[in-house]
């Protein structure tokens, strides 16, 4: 990965986190779990972060969390929700920011759509949730274990 955002991630991320601490009391992110007919789960790889992740992003002002995850899944994964995504769990993400939380949503029915993420997503694909690809992030591995293997839910991302 020779993307400038990845090269400067160690500088850019702390700058944004500092800004968020002063501009927002709390932040809310969303991630989604969507499976194909074979039971494989959608994972994405960003151009500016390392590893495989569940699709998702931030909840913007004026959005509900279910709307935000439906928007993010369409933009990043090319999956349009047919039914309202259901909340699976809510996690604190204090290692990222003291007021950060992430809602994990499960998708029931969905249909393919055009992605709208521009150059943000390097790769996307469906994978066996019990044997995810090499480089899957630790947090994503924990979420897959909770959703697909019945691992105990954690309070932290």
Kindly summarize this structure in a few lines.
The protein is α+β, with helices and mostly antiparallel strands and 157 residues long. Helix content is 27%, strand content 29%. The strands form three sheets. Strands 4-1-7-6 form a four-stranded mixed sheet, with helices on one face. Strands 3-2-9 form a three-stranded antiparallel sheet, with no helix packed on it. A two-stranded antiparallel sheet has the order 5-8.
Explain what the structure shows.
The protein has a single domain, classed as Nucleoside Triphosphate Pyrophosphohydrolase (Alpha-Beta Complex), CATH 3.90.79. The protein has four helices and nine strands, in the order ααββββαβββββα. Helices cover 27% and strands 29% of the residues. The strands form three sheets. The protein has a four-stranded mixed beta sheet, covered by helices on one side. A three-stranded antiparallel beta sheet has the order 3-2-9, with no helix packed on it. Strands 5-8 form a two-stranded antiparallel ribbon. With 157 residues, it is α+β, with helices and mostly antiparallel strands. The longest helix has 15 residues, at 9-23. It is globular, with a radius of gyration of 15 Å. The mean pLDDT is 91.
